[in-house]
Amino acid sequence: MSGILYAQDQDYKTSYSYFYEALEPLMYFYKIYSAAKDPRAVLCFKYMLMCKVMNNNKEDFQALLSGKFGLKYSADSHIQAIRSVAEAHFGASVVALSQVFSEFKKEI
Question: Of the four listed, 17, 32, 43, 52, which is most buried by Cβ atoms within 10 Å?
């Protein structure tokens, strides 16, 4: 909840920290119990990715996607939508962004 509030105030660095703190125990839980995919973990990861996009931090965004959690959930359609939005954003392409909106209507 705190991460969302900080994101609304456009403090994406602090917001990212709160989402990371929320995700960390969930990742530890899965190392021990190997349970099914928890939607809370995926949601935290999505917010973390969007915080990196909003901070215009391409390197950290790519590092998140190539990390353990990013590889695990890379097939998720919402993660793919965020990746496409980020590519359009980092490339400063309005045309690409409009294509993303039409391709991922359900997710966005």
Answer: 52
pLDDT-derived band at 74, boundaries 50, 70, 90: confident
Please state the pTM of the whole predicted model. Answer: 0.86
**Which pLDDT tens digit goes with each residue over 7-44?**
999 999 999 999 999 988 887 776 655 545 678 888 99
- Domain extent for 59: 2-103
Whole-angstrom Cα distance, residue 88 to residue 18? 26
Residue 108 lies in a domain: no
